[in-house]
Structure formats: C-alpha cells, structure tokens
Amino acid sequence: MRTRGAILVVEGAGRPYAISRPLKILDIELDPPGPTEALVRIGAAGLCHSDLSVIEGNRPRPLPMLLGHEAAGIVVSVGQDVHGLDVGDHVITTFVPACRLCESCRSGRPALCEPGNASNVAGTLLSGERRIHLGDRVINHHVGISAFAEYAVISAKSLVKVPAALPFDVAAAFGCAVITGVGAAINAAQVEPGMAVAVIGLGGVGMAAVMGARAVGASPIVAIDLNPDKLSIAAEFGATATFQASQPDLIAAVRATTAGGVDAALEMAGSVQALNIAWAITRRGGTTVTSGLPRSDSMASYSPAQLVAEERILRGSYLGSGDPTNDVPKYIGWYQQGRLPVERLISSHLLLDDINSGMDLLASASGLRHMVSFEE
Questions:
Q1: Helix, coil or strand: residue 351
Q2: Residue 237: half-sphere exposure toward Cβ, Cα within 13 Å
Q3: For position 376, what pLDDT does the model report?
C-alpha cells in the first residue's frame, strides 16, 4: 500500500530544522505484514530525544530510515501467526520487540532481548525483514516501529493492546515516556513510600519519573533542570523541592534539603554532567539510575572505593527495566485512577508536514511531549 512518512536520509543537518528539513515527507510503499507482523494505522506519534539523537548523528543508524518509535494506533490487518491481536484493536508501540525465547527474555528482562536489540541496530523488524520502500530503494525501520507515517508494519512483539477509550496522544506517551520514566523509578530504583527521590532532566521521561515517584508515595521528591519553567511544572506533578541545575551550590543545597542526600537519583537528561549530579546527591547506600542515553562515546568515572565503602548502586535502565505487557496495563490503570496525569505531558499537536519544526521545539527543550497527530 502507499502511504506518507518522514524519512531521514542524512544525519547531522544543522538547525533550525524547519529550514534544513532533515526529515523528508515522502510517499512510500509498505509491503503487507509478514506472518508475525501487523499493519497499524497510526493515530499519534510522539517526538522523543531518541529520534533527535539519530537526526543529530549522536546515535548512528543505517540510512535512509523512517523515524518514530512512540506511537498509538489501530490494527488494520495481522499476519497468519499473530495471536492475541485482532483487527480493530487499539495498540501502542514499544521500542524493543521481545522474542520471548532468548536468555534475556526467559529471565524476565525483555528490554535486553538479544534478537530484538540486534534487529533494532540493523534497521529491520524482528523478522529481519524491511517492509518500507521508496521506489526501488529499501528504507530502514527505526527500532522496529517507524511511526512517523500514516501506516506502519510492525512486529506483533512490539505492540501492546490498550483500551479503545484512551486518546491516541495519551496512549502513545505510554510507549516510551511513561514506561521509561515511571519504570526507572518503580523497577530500576525500586522507589517505595517515604523514600527521598531526585529526578535530573525534566523532559517527558523525567516528568513521568516524577509522576511515578509521587504515585508510589515517595517523599521528598526533588526535581532538577536548567529550565525554570519545567521546575514549575514538576512542582505541579508532585515535586516537593526544585533546583536549577546551574546553581553553584546545587549539591550542598540538595543534600541539605534531603538530610544528606536522596535514596534514589534518576538521571533523565542524557548527559554526563547530569549523571554526575545524580551520583553526587545520592546518599550512602542509595541507588543512582541513568536512563538518559548520552552520546555513545561519552565517558564517566567514579571511585570504586566509594562504590564499595558506601554500598552504592549505579545502574542503567532501558525501557523502564520491566515488561511492557505487564507494566503498560498497570500504568494505564494508574492513569485511569488519576495517579498518573499523563495527558498533562502533551505540549502540542503537529501535522506530519510540520515535523521538522517540532524537532526544533524538541531540540530547544520547549515543552514536554510534542505529538504528531494523524486523526482526521
């Protein structure tokens, strides 16, 4: 079938993207879904720093590539070996397809699925196939999703069924921002009632982490960012103390506010500087979690003696360190109960033709989540 999508042909285009237009809106051809795949009509797709990192060249991927990985839509057709999904089901996308057969999947860590991560790096679906064409040229898939298009062929292993009553823009946010941010707090940091928590970096993922910490009763909750407007929003989401990341006495101020440091510090900014702050404000015996994904050549250093003598934990968190098939329904339940006001993450709605301007908003840290809307 023919559809329209946003194709990245060259990395490293200069800003503003509204002028350089790194994403080309083109007519493309989609193959029918394979035996384990589904054709999805996209309702909304979120703009995320993972997309921006590919545009900037900070996360090299095979080109040309149709970007987009945080999305919600409706199943149009399914392959013959797909079970548990039917035509008409509302679904969200998750950016690691879990094969459920490899050692990581069988040990309960589908975010580390070996075939899933290999296919993501290669620019294919989990099947190893590419279903997107531009004339005679084959187009790569972005982490098995490629949601910046009216329609997408996606592995059923990348889809989670959601209630049809959920608005597409809200549903889409659960596929990356919510599952990554809330999951980092709940699964990776294991935040519990009364724990002192800090979140550094208040984009969509960071704000979701603040929401998640509040939802389970953490207190105090410290929010840190360079942007004062985002600090105000974080306070509305449940942060009990806010600090600008640039203030000279930041570490001492946070430690004073939290009686010596936080039990869990969550780095969501994707920078070594933010991770250093997270490490410095974590108390003895505490946990520092990083989900921000800085450049692949970024390096950080820590004292092994401090790690041992203070019984510190430093860990990464990918896809919320959980299982989307279990976590997404739970988080949606929290949203329905009013514990996760996910709708407040949505800053703007864009048309597909305006996606380059949306990337400018994302690059300038304006707003939280900008959504490309495909609803008529």
A1: coil
A2: 32
A3: 58
Is residue 253 classed as helix, strand or coil in its secondary structure?
helix
> Would you say residue 182 lies in a domain?
no
Three-state DSSP at 7 gives strand
Distance CA 138, CA 3 (A): 15
Look at residues 272, 282, 202, 283 and name the one whose alpha carbon lies nearest to residue 242. 202
Residues 23 and 84 in one domain: yes
- Provide the H-helix boundaries in 109-154: 114-122
Which residue type does 279 have? W
The radius of gyration computed from the CA coordinates of the chain, to the nearest angstrom, equals 20
Residue pair 287/198 in contact by the 8 Å Cβ criterion: no
**pLDDT of res. 30:** 98
H or E element at residue 286 = strand 282-290
* Angle between helical axes of 272-280 and 250-257 (0-180°, round to 10): 40
Q: Locate tokens 């019984």: which residue?
A: 311
Q: How many domains does the chain have?
A: 2
Residues 205 and 219 in one domain: yes
Beta strand pairing call for 369-373 and 282-290: unpaired
pTM of the model: 0.96
Tokens of 229: 């407007």
Amino acid at 162: V
Angle at 355 between CA 354 and CA 356, to 5 degrees: 95
CA distances from 161 to 135, 148, 178, 338 (A): 33, 20, 16, 20
CATH number for position 92: 3.90.180.10
How far, in Å, are 57, 173, 201, 315 from residue 344 at the CA level?
30, 11, 17, 29
pLDDT at 297: 84
CB 222 within 8 A of CB 234: no
CB 51 within 8 A of CB 68: yes
Backbone angles phi and psi of 123, in degrees to 5? 85, 25
Q: Residue 202: what pLDDT? A: 97
- The ranges of the chain with pLDDT < 50 are none
Same domain, 195 and 280: yes
Domain boundaries, position 81: 2-176+322-373
Residues 80 and 14 in one domain: yes
Q: How far is CA 136 from CA 139, 153, 231, 302, in A?
A: 10, 18, 49, 50
185 is a domain residue: no
